[in-house]
Amino acid sequence: MCDIATKLPILVANLLDRESKLQRGRFREETLTDIFTGALTAFAGPELVIEYPTEAATGGDIDLDFWQVSSGRRLSIRIQAKRLNAEIDGGKPVAIERRAYRELLHQVPKKTGPYQYKTLVGGSGSVLPLYMFYNHGAVTRDSYFSKPGPDVRGINLAFACDIADELDAKLIAKPKRLHHTRLSHLRKHFFGLEAILCPCGVLEGNVPSPDNVSAALAKIWDDMTTAVADQSVEKAVRDRLLRPSSLAPRQASGRRLRDGPAIRVNRTLDRPTVTFISGRTDDERTPKILDDFAGFDG
Fold it and tell me: β-strands 263-266, 296-297: how paired?
């Protein structure tokens, strides 16, 4: 799992570098998220279950459910993926400082519905929303991003509430010229994939526990509230006090994944869901996960 956190961003970065050679189109968020999910299939089994909906209606979104059976604790994360725009736009090169995530202001339905980011942060409830940003290898190696700040990688994560604040500011700006969808501006909110896949640097078992993931994310939240250079001390203190409650695992003792295959179809889901099962027990609380990788649930 820690290897995935290190190597998968490199793979995604290299793939995006090569998309200019594609005969048709480009790599979509859905494709890159499928690669992320596919990498996790190597761990599918008693401690990791992957469920797919019959038809995903949410593009590159994916849910991660960290569940510790013995304590009944659970941390749920909803990830929305966005990729960086290409280096060529309309036949003209785009300056590195202008590379942006244009689809951040996507509306569903297009041009008439609510902004996708508002739906992500507004309807999350007990689920922690994160963004997963996919970046080109050439961008991660560019000297422009050698300046002090979070590492730019093939895959970066960010708290969705931080990105939502940036997008809110862009929408109300007059004129709407704030560059709040640019990588160069959003970089300050970035952190690495290891926060959720290898939160302690080394795992006690094969998968991360909800408490370890929560602790890693909480530390990142607290560190960022004091590290962002353009905010006041008052705002830093306020942000720390307003840490999302969904950062903390909740008690879910009644929740039990059904017995069945490690990779399955679940008709009740709206998006792919990966369940990380730690603290397995020898009683009925722990589901029996079969070795075969096909089946239906729900």
Answer: parallel
Angle subtended at Cα 273 by Cα 245 and Cα 247, rounded to the nearest 5 degrees: 15
Q: Does the CA dihedral 290-291-296-298 come out positive or negative?
A: positive
Give the residue ranges of the chain where pLDDT is below 50: 229
Q: CA–CA distance from 100 to each of 12, 95, 124, 153, 274 (Å)?
A: 17, 10, 25, 15, 29
Of 32, 249, 240, 37, whose CA–CA distance to 128 is shortest? 249
pTM: 0.91
Q: Which tokens hold the place of 242?
A: 């307003």
Picking from 179, 170, 184, the residue whose alpha carbon sits closest to that of residue 96 is: 184
- Asked if 181 contacts 168 with a C-beta cutoff of 8 angstroms, the reply is no
For 235-286, how does the pLDDT look when each residue is reduced to its tens digit (9 = 90+)? 555 565 678 889 999 987 656 789 999 999 999 898 999 999 999 999 999 9
Q: How far apart are alpha carbons 229 and 243 in whole angstroms?
A: 19
Is 295:260 a contact under the CB 8 Å cutoff?
yes
Tell me which amino acid residue 284 is: E
pLDDT of residue 187: 97
